[in-house]
Amino acid sequence: MATRVPSVIRNFSLRRIGNPTIFLGTADVELPTFTALTMELSGAGLLGKCDVSIPGHFSNLAAKITLHTPDSEYISFYDINGDVIEARGIIQSKDPATGQRVTDALRVALRCDGVKTGTTGKLVVGEKADSSIDLVVDQVLYYLNDTKVLEWDFYSYKFTVNGQDILANDRTILGFA
What we know:
Radius of gyration: 20 Å
Shape: globular
Distance between the termini: 42 Å
Mean pLDDT: 92
Structural class: mainly beta
CATH topology: Pnp Oxidase, Chain A
Number of domains: 1
Oligomer: single chain
Strand content: over 45%
Number of strands: 12
CATH class: Mainly Beta
Largest sheet: 10 strands, antiparallel
């Protein structure tokens, strides 16, 4: 039986790390989707077709941040250049043996190369504007309870999962190490 049952993100904060660090206030964040680069394999002696994934290689990572209004924090995204967006959250779980709530720390750091798309949202009396920005992401660091569990770095040719450097041998072969 599971030692804990993850249930909800209790809360999170969002910052643009820099000089100065900007607290981004009320926002929703869509973290990058990792879509592997694949190649379709077929030929003699094989039973049809099969996609072959290329470890560590992904298509265009992006993060979407939606702020409630098109204020100065929203506008500040348009000059992003290698800045880090950091989300810190609380993962709430349940311990089935004791019935007690358990929490874990989540930290996601995204280094962003620039704006892919942006919309200032809509203007409706008494409603939020849903101003959103899609940012090009070239590095992802994912921590659980201060332990790095995922690292993907486009420019450093690095992909690490749970401490295992998936591309270490590739870097050596290519002369990057």
